[in-house]
Design goal:
Elements: H1 9-12, E1 21-24, H2 34-43, E2 48-51, H3 63-67, E3 71-76, H4 83-91, E4 95-98, H5 101-113, E5 117-120, E6 134-137, E7 140-146, E8 152-161, E9 166-167, H6 176-179, E10 185-194, E11 213-216
Parallel strand pairs: 1-2, 1-8, 2-3, 3-4, 8-10, 10-11
Antiparallel strand pairs: 5-7, 6-7, 8-9
């Protein structure tokens, strides 16, 4: 059995360079790879392209990279919670590619499974389809979308073993699974890391074959993006 465990986040991010393309799991602030993002900020990696459902908030998640102007391009499906993102986009400082959410997920999954491209009806007749090949199937028009090409995927799971097998918890099982194995190197950070063979095979969501490096994260804040409470009577 191949052991994928590394001893620190710095070891997990070995090889990260300026100008690379990164996938980052999570949805909003749920299930984001907090340790990996913080270390990217510390490294000062510049001119990066980030593929992520969204860009976090102003002072957390990918918002931390935006504050330092480390991101050159964002490929996302939702950007509504980050004022700095909006400012950089409108000023032309940040290149942005907006993609329908399902298409974003499928372009990750296509990269994961080795499918170079696929047809989808999402976005046909809109700006999303501009410059892309279209084709008719059964009297319905489709847009050709290509699989993503990324250098690193950074994902976060609840529990993993040293062989890279992962279990996600609740809604953190969002974009994380489809980003595993979708880049040249997938780095998984977990809240609990156990020896290889200590996970119930029936509970594993992603097998270790998709993971190259795994480490146990620490000091997770798990912030709430939008807190809504019931008013007292």
């Amino acid at each position: 059995m191949i052991i994928k465990k590394v001893n620190s986040v710095s070891e997990a991010l070995h090889g990260v360079k300026d100008g690379m393309t990164f996938m980052l799991g999570g949805f909003g602030l749920c299930g984001i790879p907090e340790n990996s993002i913080s270390h990217l900020v510390k490294l000062g990696t510049k001119n990066i392209t980030c593929i992520s459902n969204n860009a976090g908030v102003d002072d957390f998640g990918l918002g931390l990279l935006l504050q330092k102007h480390q991101i050159k391009k964002m490929i996302s499906s939702y950007v509504g919670e980050n004022d700095e993102f909006e400012r950089q986009m409108l000023s032309g400082e940040l290149e942005v590619e907006l993609i329908p959410q399902g298409t974003l997920a499928e372009r990750c999954r296509a990269a994961q499974t080795g499918i170079p491209a696929f047809y989808t009806p999402a976005g046909y007749g809109t700006e999303v389809a501009e410059g892309k090949e279209t084709k008719e199937f059964d009297n319905k028009m489709y847009v050709l979308e290509h699989a993503f090409k990324a250098d690193f995927s950074f994902v976060k799971a609840w529990k993993g073993d040293e062989a890279g097998n992962l279990i996600f918890k609740g809604t953190a099982r969002n974009f994380n699974p489809v980003m595993c194995g979708a880049a040249k190197i997938t780095v998984a950070e977990v809240e609990e890391l156990v020896p290889a063979g200590h996970l119930d095979p029936n509970q594993i969501h992603i097998p270790g074959i998709f993971i190259q490096r795994i480490f146990q994260g620490e000091k997770y804040e798990k912030r709430i993006e939008q807190r809504t409470v019931k008013k007292r009577n």
